[in-house]
Amino acid sequence: MAIRGMEWLAVRTRIVPVGLLPFLMMACLACQHGGSGLDGCLYWMDEPARQWPAEEWGRQVEYMRRAGFRHVIMSGPSYDVLTEAADARLVPFDHFMNASRGTGLRVYLSLWSHPQWYGRWDLAEELDTNASVIARLTERYGRHPNFAGWYIPHEIYVMWDDQARYMRELYAGLSRMCKAATADKLVVLSPFFILDRKGYLGDFRFAEPDEYEDFWADLLAATQIDVVALQDSGEHLSCYSLDDRRPFLAAMRRACTRTGRRLWINIETGELHVDGLEAYAHRFGRKTHVNDPRTQSDWRAVPPDKLRDKIRLAHEFSRTTITWGYQQYWDPMRGAEPRSIYDAYRGRELERIGLEPQPRPR
To answer: Which of 12, 117, 217, 295 has the CB geometry, 3.0–4.6 Å to 255, for a possible disulfide?
Structure first.
């Protein structure tokens, strides 16, 4: 299949920032029940997490519970299960699953994607590798009471022509295999939208909300995807307003309504702090990718008051909100600064995890 070169924003990978700008977080404006106001998170099984013994994974699950999480999308096992040392590599995830028993956490396993899948466009490789991944992970975790479904990690915005046809075949094939293995489990996807109409961040084709809606309605109708967890951040830039984001959230809700899919909102709790697109171009250079190493010192956790506003916006369209950014910015097991942000998001200061349990959100 001949596929023309794609714009850099058509698909996206994330680079975890090296550090964060220190800032004081206030504990006001948090949810009264003590949770974060978010219902779940995406989590990557990175090397620090792999070193945690079972007891530490118990603490992590408790932190997630107290944040109000009900859904956890876990990445990492799809790569581990393909290695010769799969049993050993999967032990940390076994700890997490064991600690989740009895908590009500619903765990979704990410599928596999080649690190450069968006440049290789090898449909057979993606489907064949994931057939093995799905079979092996189903055998190991398919009957676990907390296993709730699958996550497709191939994130896109809008595509056209041959690329659109490729994504339709990819999503249809992946979701079909997931349903064949576990018919009663959900298949989740987390696409994004962009808001840079003038090409400050790169050369790409822009889709207005109506075109965005039609693209996703057509694509979803060709698949067995159950849940669309739409990212709310555009290109991660802090300068975008709620009103900038609202038309694309509305467009995706219409697409989900047309196709009978569930809509969640992925409220990103990490952002690239910048006053505007012109300021971004002046600081980093026009056409600079948001994940360029030069931008890393300007990433931060979303301030608590802004998070409250983002949650209110999301609730105009969905009652289920997950987040990218927990692990990267406010996982309390990652140090004092993330712990302070975690406490601020929850609206109270905690001395240690062993304090009395807080009420769960209803």
So the answer is: 217
For 88-116, the pLDDT digits (tens) are 999 999 999 999 999 999 999 999 999 99
Query: What is the per-residue DSSP string for 57-75?
Result: HHHHHHHHHHTT--EEEEE
**Structure-model confidence comparison of residues 123 and 35, the more confident one:** 123
pLDDT band at 347, cuts 50/70/90?
Answer: confident
Q: How many CB atoms lie within 10 A of CB 59?
A: 16
Phi/psi for 295 (5° steps) reads -90, -10
Phi then psi for residue 106, to 5 deg, are: -105, 120
189 belongs to a structural domain: yes
Q: Where are the alpha helices (DSSP H) in the chain?
A: 47-50, 54-66, 77-80, 86-89, 91-100, 117-120, 123-141, 161-181, 209-221, 242-259, 277-284, 304-314, 336-346
Domains held by the chain: number = 1
Q: Is the dihedral of CA 244, 245, 246, 247 positive or negative?
A: positive
3-state secondary structure of 273: coil
pLDDT confidence tier of residue 253, bands split at 50, 70 and 90: very high
In a domain, 24, yes or no: no
Domain, as residue range, for 89: 40-346
**338 contact partners, CB below 8 Å, separation of at least 6:** 329, 330, 331, 332
Quickly tell me which residue has 């080649």 as its tokens.
114
CA 124 to chain centre: 25
Domain CATH code at residue 287? 3.20.20.80
DSSP state of 298: G
| Residues comprising the chain, all counted | 362
pLDDT(225) > 70: yes
Cβ neighbours of residue 194 under 8 Å, at least 6 residues apart?
9, 157, 201, 204, 206, 234, 235
DSSP characters for 199-224? -SS-S-----HHHHHHHHHHHHHTS-
**Predicted pLDDT of residue 9:** 41
18 and 125 Cβ atoms separated by less than 8 Å: no
Q: Could you tell me what percent of the chain has a pLDDT over 90? A: 83
Residue 164: per-residue pLDDT: 97
Where residue 353 falls among pLDDT bands split at 50, 70, 90? very low
Instruction: With H, G, I as helix, E, B as strand and everything else as coil, classify residue 41.
Output: strand
